[in-house]
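Tutorial handout. Part one gives the primary structure; part two gives the three-dimensional structure as tokens.
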Amino acid sequence: MFIEVEALEKTFTIRKRAGLLRREKREVRAVDGISFGIGKGEMVGYIGPNGAGKSTTIKMLTGILTPSGGRLRVAGIDPSRDRTRLAHRIGVVFGQRTTLWWDLPLRDSYALVHRMYRIPDTRFAENLARCVDLLDLGELLDVPVRQLSLGQRMRGDIAAALLHDPDVLYLDEPTIGLDVVSKAKVREFLRELNATRGTTVLLTTHDLTDIEQLCSRVMVIDHGRLMYDGGLAGLHEAGESERSLVVDLARETAPIEVPGARFVRAEGPRQWLALPASASAAPVVAAVAAAYPLVDLSVREPDIESVIAKMYGGTGGTPRAAGESVR
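Part two.
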């Protein structure tokens, strides 16, 4: 395995005021004994609600944080003991924090990365040209980072993380706040990167569409514990999640009845249907279009928090293996 995690733990000590002159200490277990392995070239989604332990895990994988317990290896390297050597093997993008220099144009930020990683000139030029082309950065190279939009800066951050040809790329919320066009560009670039370079990608996100379009495997973490590890279809089955179909009709009608979906509610000519998230929406859409005066239709994915809540609701937070049913 390229990434090996065994019984990984991270505990923080929190001091809380308990009176005028007294403070109480308590321990918060951000990561609670998780284990998993990721092979070279895999694209894995790592998801969970806010505060679940995703970013803490990423920070331990990069060597920013030292584990409180367990064993961790990335490309055979202990991140916390040999962070400098590991830095040449990994790329990291934190969606809400830039690694670029705020007042410098992108071109100068990339030149600094060139020198920091001692990237050979030819290799740097080839990688920069490739990233600029695929991420559409050509007109932005001379623009200071502070003047870039969020989507432009995110694409710039992804390019900076890949100039030294890392073996693994950690992406922490890379599409947060991006518009539809920017998201599509980032996703297409990551697909191409994985297909042509075999780069291992660990992606944390709140957008299930990111996972569906990029990852064949998903891991769910909550309260610091690994709740699920398997395919996305199995996650939807375990969480009994549903897509919402919002249907706008030309006129108000009786509740829509089509195979594969159930009626939820209606407001005038607009109706809401629900169908299993693991099933294709295409047959339902075709049936609605054939039998009703359709004007517009949209499909809304279930949010990750609701999927997770249903997945282990009533189990007391007990981890569940792929394919295990919910009771």
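Part three, for discussion. The longest strand covers residues 23-38. Residues 242-301 form one domain.
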